[in-house]
Amino acid sequence: MAELGYEQLRIYLDNQQYQELQTVLNQLHPVDIVQLLNDLSADDQKLVFELLDIEVASDVLPHLPDQILEYILADIHTNKLVKIIDEMETDEAADIISEMKEEDSEELLAKIDQQDSQNIKQLLNYDEDSAGGLMQTEIIAVQKSAKRDQLIEDIRKNYDEVEKLNYVYVVDDENRLIGNLDIAKLLLAKPERKAEDIMEPVVISAPVDMDQEHVANLFRKYDIYTLPVVDSENHLLGRITVDDIIDVIDEEASEDAYKMVGLESEDRVFTSPLSSVKKRLPWLTLNLFTALLVSSVVGIFEQTIARLSFLAVLMPIVAGLGGNSGTQTLTVITRGIALGELTIRNTYRAIFKEITVGLINGIIVGSFAMLIAYLLRGDIILGIVLGSAMVCNMFIAGLVGSLIPVIMKMLKIDPALASSVIITMLTDIGGFASFLGLATLFVK
Hints:
Order of helices and strands: HHHHHHHHHHHEHEEHHEHEEHHHHHHH
Radius of gyration: 29 Å
Number of helices: 22
Shape: globular
Number of strands: 6
């Protein structure tokens, strides 16, 4: 496999050595080409993409970031795009076409292979975050009565159309899925054996409308490489491969990370400033109101802070550690929900465990805080107040950090959405109220 760094690429471009660059580019791995394109200006991105062979371009296009893909699709000639789409698997082709304007996509679908066009139109009807939106229609399905040599011949004829072939699927006369057939077992079978004799009759499959996160859980749970997709009557429609699921897992993890800080996954590194402001401002506005609520709690103890101004130095310690503890609990519980580890029967055990962890951490960290406060101020009462407030706030963090995502899940709201701002608000209120309240009562 050839190598090409950014500096070498710039030399080729600056010297207009396009023929030499074309030779080197088409020997690179598609993902490496994507990385090079990511570092170029929009005009150079279009120029470099034009130098790619059709087969290489068909591997590069599905991996491009949305912004670069938009540039390329706006500039590329329709006839070349038709050739590229013809080289792609149907699921990837559907993803690309879904990004195009309606009139452009209709023109493209009219020009590509008729069977591919029908398959892609079918995929475009499914929700992009469902099993139907993930699946590819390229699949080898055989009749249960077919013998080994016939099966092998069918595989030979269709191999170029179906990549990553580990299994063929066995169907009945009405195309209902009844089993899967491991290629290795097929090769070792005797010539007279039929598909129904060699197949595994128990097949894990995904309904066409299953959410992509649940599909990913099936891959994780059963440790599989491909998954057939069926309709409500178990008719075989297509398959999902593990490389698509890796993308889903990455997408879901990124989506949860974005949601926990109030961002949309469409807000990327090179999203326009105005678009990013529109996506972020509502969350910051919500934060403003929660911050005002927290400050109103602090305002209740205004006289205490005026009398004991050094409390203001210690207040962020209580709130900060409580917030961190709550976020840790939130992450563990949200992840448990996503993986299906939390059920109705075991949720209470998870909540009890997180409260216990919060209390233990509160006692340990609070003891250190008590010692530090005593050493700084020489006041044992202040140290006890700080340590006690820490224990209270860690308890609150464990309680709300586990309860909030569970409650949101019960209300059919994504637990990652807004949980962090609610938990931060509650731990801040709990921390300030406990610390300043105890200080009002006991610190002189």
